[in-house]
Amino acid sequence: MYWDPMPVVVDSAGLQVANCPEERRLLGPPEAYLRGRWADRDWRNVPGPFYGAQTDSCWTGREVAPRHVVYEDEFGSEIVYRQPKNASEVHLLLTAALNDPFGAYAADGDDHWTLELVVEWWADRGRLSAWIDGVQRQWSTSERADERDNAVGLREFAHYLGNGLEADLRVYGFWLDNRRPPQVHETLPHLNRP
Predict the structure, then answer these.
(1) Global pTM value
(2) What is the mean pLDDT of residues 59-66?
(3) Which of 53, 102, 122, 192 fits a disulfide with 40 by CB distance 3.0 to 4.6 angstroms?
């Protein structure tokens, strides 16, 4: 079911950063660190409100949000591979975004994605799957622990791509067209072109 994370984002300034109970740091206003631009987003980001757009290469996103973030292999930029489904997952992604010194995460994807763009993204999933497989195989035997950890995330991304992402994108496509979640009896859009 599509869940609208925007109320959490708007009201997040007073939240303590996630996964750091000893640190008494607040997220602060989201517009201060969610400055990524749609034109700069990485093509591998899963459609939805959150995306990485030329983020830094410090590899901190998986430390906070390992079920949502992986790194690409050219510049080490962070990719949102699973959109949040509840407030605590939004909190994790916001903390990952806060840790990006470039401020290049964004949460305005709903303003840009259309059902047609989601269908186009889904049609290119073979290229995404090949990229995931190649990088995952290369990094799964790396001497670096952070690359091996990213390989784990890439395996999770591959599993999600084959098992669950299509259903989530169909619900998201319905939401994009109607700006509300579907009712039980309503038909969801198909992502595969005839």
Answers:
(1) 0.93
(2) 93
(3) 53
Query: Residues 64, 65, 71, 77: is their CA dihedral positive or negative?
Result: negative
Burial class of residue 93 in the structure, from the number of CB atoms within 10 Å of its CB (0-12 exposed, 13-18 middle, 19+ buried): buried
Is 80 exceeded by the pLDDT of residue 194? no
Residue with tokens 């999933």: 125
